[in-house]
Amino acid sequence: MVEPQRGETAVNNKMKNTLIITAIIILSSLHAALMAQTTLTGKVTDAEKDEPIPYATVYIDGTSIGTITDESGAFTLNDVHPPAKLVVSHLSYRSAVFLVDSHSAKEFNIVMQAKMVDINQLQVDASDNRAKNLERFKKRFLGTDYWGQNAVILNDSVLVFRKEYEEKKVKRAGRDTIKLVESLFLVRARSTLIIDMPKLGYTLYADLSYYRETPGRTTSYGYYYYKPYEDVSRLKQRKITKNRRKVYYNSPQHFFRALHAGTLMEEGYAICYQNVLSFMNVKPRYHSASILNIDTCVVAAGESVSAVLGKKDAAYAIDYYFNSSGKPINLNAINDVFGKPYSRSAIYFTRDSCAFSKDGIIPGNGIVLDGALARKRTGASLPRDYEVED
What we know:
Layout: H1 6-34, E1 38-46, E2 57-60, E3 66-68, E4 74-80, E5 84-90, E6 93-100, E7 107-112, H2 119-126, H3 130-142, H4 146-149, E8 152-153, E9 159-172, E10 175-189, E11 193-197, E12 202-214, E13 217-228, H5 234-248, H6 252-261, E14 269-273, E15 298-302, E16 305-309, E17 315-321, E18 342-349, E19 353-357, E20 367-371, H7 372-375
Parallel strand pairs: 1-7
Antiparallel strand pairs: 1-4, 2-3, 2-5, 5-6, 8-11, 9-10, 10-12, 11-12, 12-13, 14-17, 15-16, 16-19, 17-18, 18-20
């Protein structure tokens, strides 16, 4: 072993220090880039009176990031990650929505229009069987599982229902007769819907644009703000954290995040069957050769958005495998799942290009879910900025 000269040692130490400093700078830059956040500020005023609007709710759609305007109509939102939608709502005004991306202004002067009461909506609502319609909406919108049953709409009086019917020929006693069949069930909200989700620790503010049921299809659109419970005891917070994990795993959000990241198998998902019509009766026996790879059809479609291409009219069955605590089993680490617990879902693509975001949100654009994934409705939903907590 040759001992270096004193001068060589000094040079080596200097080079080492330079490399360490460079590494720290690079890591700091990467961390700053990954953690890049935007602060939004602004003021909300009345369009007619040009006066500030206090107590308006300002939030980033689908997240837990939100606030209330102060007496001067001012607001500040921190930790915003573009691209996002900024939503402003108030009981007496029409909601306002703004797209925020990396090139958007960070200060907003928002002018809101007063809301007009639709008398026709009130008359339609009054003439309908409200109790029955309300129960139907709650089951379909919130869900009938444990989470949906424990979610409570605090102001269901703001909901307005409408039904439409069409004539249909049916045979009765050997003769053709005309029967009125429901063709549309429409739900609107006159103001922000407030939903308490005690098991998940959120109060959900939903600005529901519409909810529509037609034969064989249900669609809805709106803007959502998940306000976390405040001043919760440590014990209750632990229960809430555990419940959120249970809801997240094997949810549409979990599945599409894994699809975007290319980690379906690591997250417990195996797409093994194409015959969806009979997939509920097929006993799974997973092995690597049986996996259908749809990752190759996923491409980047924009900032933080992916899309499944070329799968129009395709349908696949999805098996989700999990351990005793409900967490996903890494299918790359095992050869067989015989005897392992699993649940089954199906996915259908109705368009040539079906987009979804990296945070697991699908904007209702050609992707249809069935089975276990479809049973998780609004009552079992989480904000798009949710991250799994240990």
